[in-house]
Design goal:
2 copies of one chain form a homodimer. Helices cover 47% and strands 24% of the residues of chain A. Chain A has 2 domains: 3-142, Jelly Rolls, CATH 2.60.120.10; 144-191. Chain A has helices at 3-11, 16-25, 80-83, 106-115, 119-143, 146-156, 166-173, 177-188, and strands at residues 27-31, 36-38, 46-52, 54-61, 64-72, 76-77, 92-95, 99-105. In chain A, the strands form 2 sheets. A 4-stranded antiparallel beta sheet of chain A has the order 1-8-3-6. The radius of gyration of chain A is 18 Å and the shape is elongated. In chain A, a hairpin with a 2-residue loop joins β4 (54-61) and β5 (64-72). The longest helix of chain A is centred in the C-terminal third of the chain and has 25 residues, at 119-143. Chains A and B meet through α5 of A and α5 of B.
Amino acid sequence: MSLLITTIKKLITISADEEAILTNLFKPLNLKAGEYFLEEGQLCRYVGFIEEGLVRYYMNDDGNQKTLYFNKEGEFVSNYQSFLPRVPSNTSIQAIEDTVLQVINYADMQRMYSDVKEGERLGRLGIEHVFLNSIQQLKSFYKDSPADRYQEFLRCYPDLAQRIPQYYIASYVGIKPQSLSRIRKRLVEPK
Amino acid sequence: MSLLITTIKKLITISADEEAILTNLFKPLNLKAGEYFLEEGQLCRYVGFIEEGLVRYYMNDDGNQKTLYFNKEGEFVSNYQSFLPRVPSNTSIQAIEDTVLQVINYADMQRMYSDVKEGERLGRLGIEHVFLNSIQQLKSFYKDSPADRYQEFLRCYPDLAQRIPQYYIASYVGIKPQSLSRIRKRLVEPK
C-alpha cells in the first residue's frame, strides 16, 4: 500500500472501492532536485503528496529568495492561496532532493468530494491542518527574530537539519549563512 | 427563516429535519456594544454567526490594541487558531455595536459533522473561506503601508466606514486617528 493511502486511512475510513478511486485520482509526478512543483506567477494546479523527498517554499522579496516552509515525505504540498481561488501563485515550491509525488488536480479533487463517502471530511481535516500551520508559519516569518526562527526550525524540523543545505536554512531563518554559524555557536555555548 | 439558515442553504443542501437539527445546535447569544465574544487568554469556545451587529478582532502589542479584522451581520466569527486546537486565544473579539449571534460549541460542531449529511462539506467550505481570508489579512497586517491598509479597508468594508468609529479604523490601518485624517485628505485631493 502506498504511503498516500496509509496516510489517508489515518484520517478517514475508506472501502476497497474507494481506495481504488483514490489511487486512480492521484497521478505520479517525479521531480529531480532543483526542479519545480510550482513557480511564482503560475496557477497552482495540484495538491501533491510526497512519497519520498523534500521541497521548500520561497518568495521573492526585492530579488532575494526568502524561504517560508519545508515539506517532506508523508506530507501534503500545495499553495492553497493559488489552488483554491484559481489565481497565480506568489510563491514557488522547489524540490531540494529528488522527490516522488502523487498529485491530484482541482477537478479530480471535486470528484473525490463527490465519489468518496468521507472525502469532504478528508478535505475539511486537511485544510484545518494547513490553516493552523500556515498562520503560525506566516506570523513567525514576519515577527520572530532570526535566533527564534532558528530554534523554531530545529523544533519543527528536527530530522531535516542534516538534509537541508545551510544556505536554505539561513534563507528560512532570514539571515546570511555566516550569521547562522554565529547563532548556532551561541546556542551550543553555555550561558 | 433565520439569516443563519439562509446562509447555510447557500452553501449546502439540507432537509427539513436537518434544518431543525442545525437550529437546535446553534444557541442565541446577545452582546451589548463593548462586550466580548472572546478575550485574549481564554479558549475560543464557539463559532458564531452574526444575525445583527458588528465585531472587531484585536491583539495587544506592547500595550497597544491593534485591530486585525471586522465581521458583520451574515458572517461567521471565531478565532479558529484557538477553537480548533483547543488552546488559549492571543486575540480578542469585541462587539462594537449591540450584536445578536447564533453560536455553536466544539462538541455540537462534531455532532453537526455526523448528523447533517453535508455537514462536513459546510465545514470544509467554511474553513477554506476563513483560510484564504486570514492569510490575506495577516499578510496585509504585517506588510502593507497605512495608505494601502486604508484603501484595502475601503475595498473590503465599503459599507462599514460609517458604522465603525474613526479610532478603530485608525487602529486597523495601524496609525493614530490624526494621521488617518491626513491620509483621507490626500486620497480625495486631485494629484
